[in-house]
Design brief:
Length: about 200
Amino acid sequence: MDFSNKLRNHLVVELLSLVLIYIFWLSGIGLNRSVAAVSFVLLFLVLIIGPIMKLWRPVVEHLPWEMPWSWRGELGIWFFLLSLAHVGLVMYDREGLGTLRLADYLGLVALFWALVLTATSFEKVIKFIGVKSWKWLHSFAYVIFYLVGFHTINHAFLRTGRPDSWIHWSYLVMITVVIVLQISAFAREVVLYRKSLKSE
């Protein structure tokens, strides 16, 4: 497992993020929502890496650039940075945070936890707190995902006056994919465990 962040990976993730923001913006969803959408995509990528490694490790280990297992740190850091930019753009548009709803508070809680995970995504910090503590702390990435997922679904589908957009349905697809992969990886671990008991 790779606990270090690589400049190459950061540059690739940054470039990918900027390209996606530009593409989303060209599709007409606005700058702020484009930034929010790309941050969600990055979080989605972070969350599918673990299940993919459990389900298809022999295949993905042959991919170049240590993909995907060594990219979680960089993806997570840029998710936080774009989420922070999203909040900043919201405050700029509203001239402050304005009236906050439950979904907004959940988004801010997710942002706080993203800050914690970002601060502990660097090699020196990991060595200081220990790998076990780091793994436990970063298991909260799933909590962040579901907080952000609820925040996103609320703003995309549950608030009145929101125009229909293709990006809203892509959120549902990504959330569904994460859930399916999580369940599949869990089921595989259970099957392997049961097989190991029989072989003893």
